[in-house]
Amino acid sequence: MSLRKRADGGEQPSTLGFLKLRIPFVHYKLELPDILQGAILCVVPLSISGLMTSVLGIPFEVAVAFVVINNFLFMLHGHFGDPAVSGWITAGIPLYVAFLSGYPEGDARILALVALQLTVAAVFFAMGLFKGADVLVRKMPMSLKAGILIGAGFSAVMTEFSDTGRVWSMPITILLGATLGFFMLFSRTAAPLRERYPMFRFIAQYGIAVPFLIAYVFGILIGEVQAPSLQWGWVSLPFGEMLDSYTVFGLGWPSYQYFLDALPLALAAYVIAFGDVLVIDSLFKNADKVRKDEKLVFSPRRNSIIAGIRNLFHGLCAPFISLSGPSWTGGQALVVNRYMNNDRKAMDSYWGGANSIYWGMSIALLLLPVVSLFKPGLNIGLALTLLIQGYLCGYLAVEMLGKGSNLQRGVAVIVGAILATKGAAWGLGAGLILWLVLERDWLAGDSRTASGAAEPAGSE
Q1: Beta-carbon neighbour count of residue 169 at 10 Å?
Q2: Distance from chain centroid for Cα 181
Q3: CA–CA gap between residue 298 and residue 377 (Å, rounded)
Q4: What is the share, in percent, of the chain residues with pLDDT greater than 70?
Q5: Are 109 and 56 in contact (CB under 8 A)?
Q6: Of the given ranges (66-75, 184-193, 299-308), which has the lowest mean pLDDT?
Q7: Side-chain half-sphere exposure of 414, counting CA atoms within 13 A
Q8: What Cα–Cα distance (Å) separates residue 73 from each residue in 18, 42, 70, 79?
Q9: Residues 445 and 430: beta-carbon distance below 8 Å
């Protein structure tokens, strides 16, 4: 099989019509830098296993098996026409933990998670099948869009720097990794260094993988991180135990009360996830401006349907505490940055990078030596991911508000602050009220307004 070539400025070739199936070596090249980066960053998905053992009481081996399933499901997006580097609904994890903690540990808590994940799947399907996601991207007021991004950004950073946040578990290590990672991805100095020095350009193409490795090794040397204990073989995947003890096939179907309890949080989770849709939509538009040789087509509708499929599978066969969302913001930034900083000769297609990062990560998660090597660094990987997510959400919100009025900026700040401190439902509710009261012009048809009445104070 030979690689199908792309016309300059067109979409990458695919098959199966509207499904846009892309197969490795036929429709895209595997990109070695992204494969290696994914293998190293397997610590990011692995980091959720600790939360699953502590909150759900799932054994570590079973939790790792859930992570492996989750990672292979990530690849549905890149292979069926959605360019998103998919991930969890990460910013809502504290909300899910609080919800689950309201149930007794054991079967009741597992069934509560099943109900939550199936309800989230239903919301994603509804928004995708009835084009609600596309309408939200186009029609939602700018102040609410920016407010969601601000709130998601603050929530991600506040989680890491709270009194019990991951930063304080190994402060020097995580802050060193964050500093190096931010420099590699976003610094003004990094761009000219790439142009002048081939060695720096070679290192920079691996994104935050190199900063993570430097911080991990340094943390071990100064004693903040425990030295790994290597094990050999393949990661155990106890599918029988998973189905019998932690799914509806062994525990039975949750009662309707579980679903009623989960509905408000499921809607809030979608609002948080919608912030990721806004981020990736902006990133792809920026990428199209830089890489004129390829057209990236992002459909929020397609993204929502595939995310719904992932949540449905997890809800039935492998309930997952972080839920399944539109994008892994940190990984999305890595792939988009490498794509934008290279020409077609160095990186033929965006799809090669977006799929290769998960091929590397998913295969690495099956290798016990890799999992045991990076196990002590799980907190570093998750902290870097959340801090990068906070940065991206923040700058995209400010960029969006640069085109708006002071009134919109004020509403966005209020929405973001409430969302970060009281949750997505409160933030969105406050935003809708403020939009109706402050931004909506109820006298648009009034002759006094049409004849040039003064605009509200603070608007531009």
Answers
A1: 14
A2: 17
A3: 34
A4: 95
A5: yes
A6: 184-193
A7: 16
A8: 20, 15, 5, 10
A9: no
